[in-house]
């Protein structure tokens, strides 16, 4: 008889503690959800991937090289031309 009443008190106490902790945690997480917002950053949205520079390299019958360089970025085209001249040792 005494054992059953102690067990009932333990169950009741456990239910009360779980209920209180559930209420506390639910209020904490609901505040975080209210403050959470997506922020749009236009500088990130406008970033476009770079297109590579395309090179058509040709070798003539006299062992001379010529090439055509195409691309969107002029600075990248100039850098590529300089690098090709340096690698092929053309002045």
Descriptive tags:
13% strand; two-stranded antiparallel ribbon; rod-shaped; single chain; 3 helices; 91 residues; 2 domains; alpha+beta
Task: Break the fold down into its secondary structure elements and pairings.
Blueprint lengths: L1 H34 L6 H4 L8 E6 L5 E6 L3 H15 L3
Antiparallel strand pairs: 1-2
Descriptive account of the structure:
This protein is α+β, with helices and mostly antiparallel strands and 91 residues long. The chain folds into two domains: 1-37; 48-88, no CATH class. 58% of the residues lie in helices and 13% in strands. It contains three helices and two strands. The chain has helices spanning 2-35, 42-45, 74-88; strands spanning 54-59, 65-70. It has a two-stranded antiparallel ribbon. Strand 1 (54-59) and strand 2 form a beta hairpin. The termini are far apart. The relative contact order is 0.08.
Summary, kept brief:
The chain has 91 residues and is α+β, with helices and mostly antiparallel strands. Helices cover 58% and strands 13% of the residues. It has a two-stranded antiparallel sheet.
User: Which outline best applies?
Assistant: rod-shaped
Report the major sheet.
Answer: 2 strands, antiparallel
Name the helix and strand elements from N-terminus to C-terminus, one letter apiece: HHEEH
Q: Could you give the distance between the termini?
A: 106 Å
The helix content is 55-70%
What is the SS-derived class? alpha+beta
- What's the number of helices? 3
Strand content: 5-15%
Number of strands: 2
- Overall pLDDT confidence: 79
Indicate the low-confidence ranges by residue numbers. Answer: none
Number of domains: 2
């Amino acid at each position: 008889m005494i054992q059953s009443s102690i067990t009932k008190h333990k169950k009741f106490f456990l239910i009360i503690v779980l209920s209180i902790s559930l209420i506390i945690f639910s209020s904490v997480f609901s505040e975080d959800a209210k403050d959470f917002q997506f922020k749009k950053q236009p500088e990130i949205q406008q970033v476009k991937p770079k297109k590579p520079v395309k090179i058509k390299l040709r070798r003539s019958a006299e062992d001379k090289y010529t090439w055509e360089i195409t691309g969107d970025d002029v600075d990248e085209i100039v850098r590529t031309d300089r690098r090709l001249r340096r690698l092929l040792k053309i002045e």
